[in-house]
């Protein structure tokens, strides 16, 4: 007697989304395989930065998994994840514009009314704050981040040195950058308010 084995690639988006809601990891993997490249191309077209696009799409899929139990698909699965990607792109572009405008106005202000010593002081203060936030990262994450950023080791070299997988090394650096972006953005907002 033959058993019927369901291949996830043959399932519809509706079936996959229903299975995702129940925590089916294979359904999640199929959704990722089905839409990852398309979303990456879509995000890249808007951002024109491959690393930013990759981070953003990874965030979309991470959020999809983390919120799987509370998701409500009022439209199709594809419409949901395309909208989530587009909204994240627009949020990121909006944030970049705000930071860009701030940097431009700060630069203009400094050129017109501040001596170079003040500019150097602000630069040193920002560098100090960045170093402080790096120091505050969890110890293993900090070690991996510094091996990547300061010693410029590849993920595979870090993995070999620390006895971890290259994927783990890459994920730790990605997570460190996300933490640092949030912290440094809050400092920039403080400067704007000041």
Describe this structure in words.
- By secondary structure, this protein is mainly α.
- It has 2 domains: 7-112, Rna Polymerase Sigma Factor, Chain: A, CATH 1.10.1740; 114-194, Orthogonal Bundle (Arc Repressor Mutant, subunit A), CATH 1.10.10.10.
- It is built from 8 helices and no strands.
- The protein has helices spanning 13-21, 25-47, 50-66, 77-113, 116-135, 139-149, 155-162, 166-193.
- The relative contact order is 0.07.
- Residues 1-5 and 113-117 have low confidence and may be disordered.
Task: Note the topology.
Blueprint: H1 13-21, H2 25-47, H3 50-66, H4 77-113, H5 116-135, H6 139-149, H7 155-162, H8 166-193
Helix pairs in contact: 1-2, 2-3, 2-4, 3-4, 5-8, 6-8, 7-8
Estimate what percentage of residues fall within beta strands.
Answer: under 5%
Structural class by helix and strand composition: mainly alpha
CATH class of the largest domain reads Mainly Alpha
Report the end-to-end length measured between terminal Cα atoms.
Answer: 75 Å
- The best one-word shape is globular
Give the total of domains.
2
CATH architectural category of the largest domain: Orthogonal Bundle
Mean pLDDT reading: 78
Proportion of residues in helical segments: over 70%
Order of helices and strands: HHHHHHHH
Number of helices: 8
